[in-house]
């Protein structure tokens, strides 16, 4: 019952555009939700996702468009200079489908993901090259 209540509250928060989720995890381990009113759209997010230092794989960034639209490209400024290991991969999902993944450089770079599809939600997830979790510091996002 607790999981259902937390999931229901998370869904309501997502629909209302509130940041964070309703769960028993610490604030540092919460996902962050952003509303995208129109394209092109850019935002400084300055969030750490994935890995033990940043809340694990359940800690993601969600970008929800007010109306589904054609998404041509996503650009993400990110670095993997968070913990002792440096083997992060940043995955991008559009409406639940994997749209791309790229290695994150320790020193940082701008990762460019060609999307070329209609969608209503974009999600960023950080994982490691060996299938585990890994931290990524996301500085900014640009969606067009």
Could you give a short description of this structure?
The chain has about 140 residues and is mainly beta.
How would you describe this protein?
- The protein has 144 residues and is mainly beta.
- The chain has a single domain, classed as Jelly Rolls, CATH 2.60.120.
- It has one helix at residues 2-16; strands spanning 32-36, 41-49, 61-79, 88-94, 97-103, 109-128, 136-143.
- Strands 1, 2, 3, 4, 5, 6 and 7 form a 7-stranded mixed β-sheet that branches.
- Strand 4 (88-94) and strand 5 form a beta hairpin.
- The longest helix is centred in the first third of the chain and has 15 residues, at 2-16.
- It is globular.
Q: Predict the CATH topology.
A: Jelly Rolls
Q: Judging from the principal axes of the Cα atoms, what is the shape? A: globular
Low-confidence stretches: 1-28
Would you list the SSEs in sequence order as H and E? HEEEEEEE
Q: What is the CATH level 1 assignment?
A: Mainly Beta
Helix proportion of residues, in percent?
A: 10-25%
Query: Hey, roughly how much beta strand do the residues contain?
Result: over 45%
Q: Measured on Cα atoms, how large is the radius of gyration?
A: 15 Å
User: Which architecture would the CATH scheme give at its second level?
Assistant: Sandwich
Overall pLDDT: 83
What is the count of structural domains?
1
- The total count of helices amounts to 1
The beta-strand count equals 7
| Terminal CA distance | 40 Å
How many strands, which pairing sense, and closed or not: the largest β-sheet? 7 strands, mixed
């Amino acid at each position: 019952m607790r999981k259902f209540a937390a999931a229901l509250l998370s869904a309501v928060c997502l629909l209302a555009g509130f940041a964070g989720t309703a769960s028993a995890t610490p604030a540092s381990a919460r996902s962050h939700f952003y509303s995208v009113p129109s394209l092109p759209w850019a935002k400084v997010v300055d969030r750490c996702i994935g890995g033990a230092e940043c809340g694990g794989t359940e800690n993601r960034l969600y970008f929800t468009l007010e109306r589904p639209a054609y998404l041509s490209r996503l650009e993400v400024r990110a670095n993997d200079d968070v913990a002792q290991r440096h083997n992060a991969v940043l995955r991008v999902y559009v409406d639940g489908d994997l749209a791309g993944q790229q290695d994150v450089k320790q020193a940082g770079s701008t990762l460019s993901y060609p999307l070329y599809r209609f969608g209503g939600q974009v999600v960023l997830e950080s994982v490691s090259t060996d299938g585990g979790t890994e931290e990524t510091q996301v500085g900014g996002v640009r969606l067009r």
